[in-house]
Amino acid sequence: MAKLVLIGIVLFFSSCSNDDNTSPELENEIDYIFEDGFETRENDLLELFPDNGSRWSNLQLVDPESGENKIDIESNITNEGNNSLRIYAAASDNTLSKADIEKSGFRAPEGSTVIIRANFYIASTNNIENLLLIDLECCSCWDPDVPDNQCPGIRLMMKDNDHLSIERGKILNSTIVQSEVAFPRNEWVNVVWELELSQNSDGINKLFINNHEVISESGINMPNASLFKTEFANNGIDFELQEPLFYERFQIGATANPTPFSIELFIDDAKIEITN
Ligand SMILES: [Ca+2]
Fold first, then answer.
1. Ligand 1 centroid – CA 80 distance (Å)
2. Superkingdom, according to UniProt (predicted)?
3. pTM confidence score
């Protein structure tokens, strides 16, 4: 063991000494990891938002007329440790109900691999078709001269019979559906979403539910400038997708609950990794 530690120290110092002549390849290397298990000392939601920005960036709460959405630290239903995040999203009416937490400030460009992992516990047996659990988005890619930035991106959406699927409507493409695994209710479920990002058909899209691969399909998974240009031109609007293009934030929770039912769910051990 002592020898291993020593080797580790030597490697650490030798890698530091190379800092002066870092090659361009290393400067372009993407190696981003953010993970959070929602652990707190006093079950205080504010602990997830320290001033140094090391944890989460934002909460999104959009209340429908039917009720008040809530996000709390949970200490009874947890997957690991003493806490998870509890999300309550009331049924949608004229207002689309949203309750989620957001991490922003990273850059996932075309060609990079993004892996998002999380554990979900859906405490409901109601129909949850169209519930959205995770959004990966760019906002800076939107044309600043066109009103109402839609923050294009891709999402995990529940389709019929509880089949979690990859929804691509915001990048003007079809949903990649699966019929392998119905999402279990009232228990912890592990979700892994793996993407090799591309504005064209050579992107790679994988989804695992409880370690079972339910989607493995090539296809576009980033906004494509000419698709956006054509779509907006149909309405007489000139739209320029902004460069450089990269995904910069993800949201997790009930990122939209369009169902006629309120939903309570819990999240634990959320993680995003970006590599190239
Ligand atoms: Ca936890």
1. 5
2. Bacteria
3. 0.89
